[in-house]
Structure formats: C-alpha cells, structure tokens
Amino acid sequence: MLVGHERNMRYFERVLANGTLAHAYLFHGPEAVGKGTAALAVAAALLCAGKTRRLGGCGWPAQILPGKTWEGKCEDCRSVKALAHPDLVVLAPDRLLVEESNRREIGIKNARELARLLALAPWSGRYRVAIIDGADALSREAQSALLKTVEEPSRRMVIILIAAAPELLLPTMRSRAVPIGFQTLSDSR
Fold first, then answer.
1. Is 90 helix (H, G, I), strand (E, B) or coil?
2. Residue 15 — φ and ψ, nearest 5°?
3. What angle do CA 129, 131, 133 make, to 5 degrees?
4. What is the arithmetic mean of pLDDT over 86-106?
5. CA-CA-CA-CA torsion sign (44, 153, 15, 160)
6. What angle do CA 161, 165, 166 make, to 5 degrees?
7. Would you state the pLDDT for residue 189?
8. What is the DSSP letter of 71?
9. Residue 70 near residue 64 (C-beta atoms within 8 A)
10. For residue 1, is pLDDT > 50?
11. Is residue 112 a contact partner of residue 138, using CB atoms and an 8 Å limit?
C-alpha cells in the first residue's frame, strides 16, 4: 500500500481481482504525492510474469513508505521498475519517445508515436501499458491525436494519465479516463 493512498490502492486491488480494469485512468493531484509509484504498481500487476494480479506484481511490500520503493522478484517486475519492460511505454516531458523542437510541452510527434506503439500486440503478456507522466504537458494537438486511441482502445491496452493540473486536459480526454485523486499526506501520519 502507498502510505496515504490506501483507498486508491484497495480500489485497484478489487479491479484486478474482479478483472474489471478500465482502459484509461487519470491519476490527478499535487506533484510528488505518489501518482507515479501507483502507476508503476498497476503496470507491474498487469505485466508480472507470475501473473499474480497482485498490485505491484510479485515484489510489492505490505506498505510503501515515502522515499522507499519495491523490488520485483521476477524479471518482468524488475524491468517495470526500471521502466524497461517491452510492454510498458512511458512518456513524460523529460522522457520523450521522439525528439521535438518545442521542449515546453509534449507534442504531436510523441502522441503519434505513443499511439503507434500502443497499436502493437503485447510482446510478452496480455497488456500494453502506457504511462503519460505529465499528461497536462501534452499540447492540444497531441491530445487530439491521442483521442482516437483513448476513445477506441484495444482490449489489450491500459493508459494511465498522470496530471497535477487535469484541467489542462481536453474535456473529451478527461471524460474517457476514470479519475483517481491523490492528496498530500497530513503531518499527523
């Protein structure tokens, strides 16, 4: 469990156990509250070689404390943690898929490359997982280019949008993803 986000993690445990996974999620909330760690836990659960369907895959501890991470036991979980799994695509302002001239936002070339990669069949598992960390940095053109992928998803794909300012996403983009809110931890924890 991520400390402070137990409700969100219990939701994903139920979704994974019931097989009712949505095709897109919007993890929103302040910067540095665990949205990225939670996204990797979901990705590891979907891509784990042990097929445990356990949040975080085979190496997830009972609790993730601030500043701590987990160690995967199988190669799939270790490669998810290292952002190197062949069925995991991570797009962020500092982790572009293709070079673009405008460095202030994620542009249309990266959106098109992400859509192309998601259209491929999974390499080793049942899913292709995309994490767009900093989805609020997608240009309007990039969001428009991703709309078809988000609106008409493959059954084999899961997209996790991570945004500190979800209001910067197009309304159609926000409406196609299940919103999952993250909060800062209180000092009483």
1. strand
2. -60, -45
3. 180
4. 91
5. positive
6. 50
7. 46
8. -
9. yes
10. no
11. no
The strand ranges marked E within 10-144 are 24-28, 88-91, 128-133
Tokens at 48, concatenated? 């784990």
Task: Name the pLDDT band for 59 (thresholds 50, 70, 90).
Answer: low
Q: What is the DSSP letter of 92?
A: B
| CB contact burial 93-124 (16+ within 10 A = b; e otherwise) | eeeebeeeeeeebbbbbbbbbbbeebeeebee
Residue, of 74 and 166, whose pLDDT is higher: 166
Tokens read off for 164: 């500190």
* The residue type at 170: L
Q: What angle do CA 6, 182, 157 make, to 5 degrees?
A: 90
Give the pTM. 0.87
Question: What six digits make up the tokens of 175?
Answer: 């409406």
Q: Specify whether the CB–CB gap between 55 and 9 falls below 8 A.
A: yes
Contact 17, 169 (CB under 8 A): no
How would residue 2 be classed by pLDDT, with cut points 50, 70 and 90? low
> For residues 92 and 40, what is the distance between their CA atoms, to the nearest angstrom?
14
Any idea which of 23-32, 44-53, 58-67, 171-180 has the lowest mean pLDDT?
Answer: 58-67
